[in-house]
Write a structure and sequence with these properties.
6-stranded mixed sheet, Metallo-beta-lactamase, Chain A, alpha/beta, 7-stranded mixed sheet, about 25% strand, about 260 residues
Length: about 260
């Protein structure tokens, strides 16, 4: 793998790039195509190199630009079968051309160029929510985001990963004392919501992740603090880490 990158992560948009220098795939596409092109250009990648998009779930910040990318550049889109069956109107509204929308079940391996990709279920409050594992030349790269709780399957996958992109959305005290209305606070902290800093760090410890790097993603602008998460991770993270605040991970490049 020549490049992996957080093109953007947070409530305003999400997308993750994996490229071997000639072929590329995306996990999520929550941006306009113009914005996506600018983000890809930072890594000397063009939209023409993108061979597929793999969707975690159907909330707008993860799929806002999926249909446009498919229509403009004939890019295939893969979603969990449950997402398509349970949210037919949402999928229809994306206006993905016939023949470009594909469904996949957990652990069904999709081969795209040099990449092998499969999904695993997550607990977010969007039917058919999944995370993804990208395999390339014997190494695995795992994206686990928008998951209110974690499970043993996910821990096992993290144990096998070389690089982990892991949600750390909120600090418990900041959420509790913050400006959000009580129903929204309850939703964020629920099993169908997001992972807190504490939950992300506990997942790292319990999974036994020993890869080369962990990237903390989907950081809340309102309910989290980069310095706070960095301080906690310095104490407990077993591996080097990067906290990816909005727009702050353009330097994520691997080899």
């Amino acid at each position: 793998m020549r490049t992996w990158a957080v093109l953007g992560s947070g409530s305003s948009g999400n997308s993750y790039l994996f490229s071997d220098g000639s072929s590329a795939i995306l996990i999520d596409q929550g941006y306009s195509v113009a914005s996506l092109k600018r983000r890809l250009a930072h890594f000397s990648t063009t939209v023409e190199a993108v061979e597929a998009v793999f969707v975690t779930h159907l909330h707008p910040d993860h799929v806002r630009g999926v249909g446009t990318l498919a229509r403009m550049h004939h890019v295939p889109v893969w979603m969990h079968t449950k997402a398509v069956e349970a949210q037919r109107q949402v999928v229809s509204n994306l206006n993905i051309p016939a023949g470009l929308l594909h469904t996949v079940d957990p652990f069904e391996v999709i081969e795209v160029g040099p990449f092998s990709v499969f999904c695993f279920e997550t607990s977010h409050d969007s039917a058919g929510s999944v995370g993804w594992v990208v395999a390339h030349e014997g190494r695995q790269y795992m994206v686990l985001t928008d998951a209110g709780v974690t499970d043993e399957v996910q821990k096992s996958l993290a144990r096998e990963a070389e690089v982990l992109f892991l949600e750390a959305n909120y600090d418990r005290e900041m959420l509790k004392n913050g400006p959000y209305p009580p129903p929204l606070k309850a939703r964020i902290a629920s099993k169908g919501g997001h992972l807190s800093n504490d939950e992300a760090l506990t997942f790292l410890a319990e999974s036994g992740f020993s890869g080369s790097h962990v990237y903390f993603i989907h950081i809340s602008d309102t309910n989290n603090s980069v310095p706070l998460l960095e301080a906690a991770a310095r104490i407990s993270s077993p591996v080097p880490f990067t906290v990816c605040a909005k727009g702050a991970c353009y330097g994520v490049v691997g080899s």
